Amino acid sequence: MNTHRTPQEQPDSFAFDSASEAEIVTVLAKYPEERKASAVMPLLYIAQRQMGRETGSAWVPVAAMDEIARRLEMAAIRVYEVASFYTMFNTKPVGRYHLQVCTTTPCWLRGSDDVVAACKRATGIAGFGETSADGQFTLTQVECLGACSNAPILQVDDDFYEDMDGPRTVALIDALRKGERPPAGPTINRCGSAPEGGRKTLMDSVHSISENK
Amino acid sequence: MVRVIVDGTPVDVPAGFSALQACEAAGKEIPRFCYHERLSVAGNCRMCLVQVVRAPKPVASCGFPVSEGMEILTDTEMVRRARRAVMEFLLINHPLDCPICDQGGECDLQDQAYGYGTGVSRYHEPKRAVTDKDLGPLVKTVMTRCIQCTRCVRFTTEVAGTPELGMVSRGENAEITTYVEKALTSELSGNLIDICPVGALTAKPSAFHARSWEYKKTDSIDVMDAVGTNIQIQARGGEVMRIVPRVNDEVNEEWLSDKGRFSVDGLKRRRLDRPWVRVHGKLMQASWQEAFVSLARRLDGVSGYQIGAIAGDLCDAESLCALKDLMTSLGSPNLDCRQDNAWYDLSAREGYLFNSGILGIEEADALLLVGTHPRHEAPVLNARIRKRFLDSGRGRFPIAMIGHPLTDPTYPAELLGDGPEVLEKLLDGSHPFAETLQTAKRPMIIIGHGALTRPDASAIYDACKKLAIQTGAIAEGWNGLNVLHTAASRVGALDLGFLPGTRGRNASGMLRGDVDVLWLLGADEFPVDKIEADTFVVYQGHHGDAAAARADIILPGAAYTEKPGTYVNTEGRVQRSFRAVFPPGEAREDWRILRAFSEVIGKTLPYDTLDALRDRMAEVNPIFRQIGAVAQPITQIEGQGVSAPSVPAVSAAQEEGLAASAFRPVMQDYYQTNPISRASPTMADCSRVYGPVRAVAAE
């Protein structure tokens, strides 16, 4: 059954804190006054991050969406539509760490199944969309994150952990559980999306290429 | 104009037309689901695909603008195959529950599947199912049937002005919902049922009651407000099952208010189906003969000045004319159609009409609402104001209100003040909105009954008129000084001169006990306990509402669905309705009752047929000859009434100058304003859900 359910436990009210207010000022300055509804997505992010700061769960409650609608003078349903359309906005509470595994073809070919299995094993989560019993982790299946050269990808909140495999996933989760935040990026010996172990092509000098001709 | 060639036929269409409109102009029918001519173009159903010569692929004609020399092909193999493919996609998730679907027989998807459906499905996967939503007491949802055309989303956002429905989530998970479960707050929500091309949104009160092909359909006029919405009454087996709007671009476009649509179940409840006579303080059933004889006895020897008649809000002009003639033959000048004690400028017909016409709203470029909340008093007309607001673009149609609205008016309206004293500021130009009105080319002022039922109504009206003249709202070719009525019978009654004659009493005078015998023609909208205890009350009407309980004789009449009638709407448009069903039991058409009674007392009214009565109406006021149009007065009305306004009787209650008190809303509860809607369980449900809106406290 396809069903949208607004989570039962909704905070009664939501108010932007001073850090968020400062961000809102910068965002709103980008749009003309009569087109300020365009700021709906930045404001949803601001609200989501604030919830993360305040409650440890980065999600957008209905009260926050209503507040955004009021600020931007748009109908609340328009905000709900945007927030529910984009998977990056969480309309229900998530764990402290949001594990987002890409399972699209390149990542899948490079072993995303192992990453998913490792996530489940390390957190005790049974399936996608669920939160671990300790409330620390939520596991989500996401579509292509656009970093296919570094597949498979595990996105934790806003950070990409690249070139994952089962053991490294478990290690990452253990580190997160301890409150550590390992540096984002490739987890193997490579720089950015350059080849593993260093340069693989264009090793010869320009001179030797012309000689080969 | 742009010349396009549709299937080889050249047609000239205005630039800006879409390919679909051009095809329609060429007489080609294009299947569609999401496209609706009164809503914005969404282009998401893809059913309207056509082939444009030299275009690489089929184009969705609803959103494709025409250009000079464009060749459109609507019936090629490519088009047919494309539409079949679209239909196949739509049917992947659509349930095969047509036999139990209320939309069956009037379903766009069903009809078009006959043309483009493939008969067998190639899909073995489970169908998508979607949870139903609770949208309140009027609209029933079966969301699995939804094909996501978003017509309902666009209707609530654009026409109704209550953006509550939306499409949330995406792809396979997309669904139409209010997100946070709530009842739709629009007074036009019933129209969602009409615009939904499938059976996702259907009528809740009449769910599973009948099939669309079983109805006997009769054209009629809505009497729940004074807009004169064109409706079609659909009846089965002598029972009105439902009411749907008819298209009339000059009046209601194709919308109908919820009260007009859903009060139908009030038509078979609390009905007066036989005459009653009060004997020793107790109402007893009686035959027509007994009722007439006892009424004739009571009237015997009573002077005409001691007899009075008050007409209600739902009366047809025929019964008003007959009652007026009967009263005249009895020698009574005591007639009134204003049970709410409204004051009108009766010196000319313009004094009580919506002069610019409903169409005129689309030409206005500034609007001042005085003591009126059109969203409740005339929801369909309010949709027209909103349409004008949306069409004119941001800030080009400034709207201001005097008098606090009970709910959001559905367009931004500047609240100038709570009482009429603001008018003085507008008149002397000290208020900034005076400048707005002054610069507008076609300013419009709408005066509602929140203003006209006050003791200082004449002063308010005069101030508005002065303002109208001052700002050019009354000019050559434009009369923007409008009265918005709430009673369907009011303008017709005023046109017939159903008003106190020379030395006649007005409604409040009659209630005070200035008459011995009071004839109420469907009049219920006043506190019945105000009638003097020793007044003999005759109630002629169709519902056992407040006044019937007080009556000494009850003459059962016909409701608006049960008699052919003439109604004049707030803009002065004369429209006729036809009989859909017969009145229940012994009840009869009202003018026939009056005609029959006139014979009993030996003052036979000079008409035996409806046509003869209508000739008589046209004799009283020639506007009754101009059916369908906004009638123009030809001559002044003879005798009592409009040309001889009962100034003494009325102005006695009028105060000089503008009072400082705030305007009070005309109706506290939109859903229960007349005997029919009060008898309707559906309207009672609405009233419970939406609640009598309490006035918002001053901020």
TrEMBL record, chain A:
One biological process term in Gene Ontology: inorganic cation transmembrane transport
UniProt keyword list: 2Fe-2S, Iron, Iron-sulfur, Metal-binding, NAD, Translocase
Cofactor names: [2Fe-2S] cluster
Entry GO MF terms: 2 iron, 2 sulfur cluster binding; active transmembrane transporter activity; inorganic cation transmembrane transporter activity; metal ion binding; monoatomic cation transmembrane transporter activity; NADH dehydrogenase activity
InterPro entries noted in UniProt: NuoE-like, NuoE_dom, NuoE_N, Thioredoxin-like_sf
Pfam families from the UniProt entry: 2Fe-2S_thioredx (PF01257)
Renumbered residue ranges of the record's region Disordered: 181-213
Cofactor note: Binds 1 [2Fe-2S] cluster.
Gene Ontology cellular-component terms listed: catalytic complex; membrane protein complex; organelle envelope; organelle membrane
Binding residues annotated for [2Fe-2S] cluster, in chain numbering: C102, C107, C144, C148
Domain of life: Bacteria
Reactions that this protein is recorded to catalyse: a quinone + NADH + 5 H(+)(in) = a quinol + NAD(+) + 4 H(+)(out)
The family this protein is said to belong to: Belongs to the complex I 24 kDa subunit family.
Protein name, as recorded: NADH dehydrogenase
UniProtKB/TrEMBL annotation, chain B:
A cellular component annotation (GO) from this entry: membrane
Residue ranges annotated for the 4Fe-4S His(Cys)3-ligated-type domain, each copy included: 78-117
Pfam families: Fer2_4, Fer4_NDSU1, Fer4_Nqo3, Molybdopterin, NADH-G_4Fe-4S_3, NADH_dhqG_C
Location of the 2Fe-2S ferredoxin-type domain: 1-78
Reactions the enzyme catalyzes: a quinone + NADH + 5 H(+)(in) = a quinol + NAD(+) + 4 H(+)(out)
GO molecular function, one term: NADH dehydrogenase (ubiquinone) activity
Cofactor annotation comment: Binds 1 [2Fe-2S] cluster per subunit.
Family, as annotated: Belongs to the complex I 75 kDa subunit family.
Record protein name field: NADH-quinone oxidoreductase
Protein source organism: Acetobacter cerevisiae
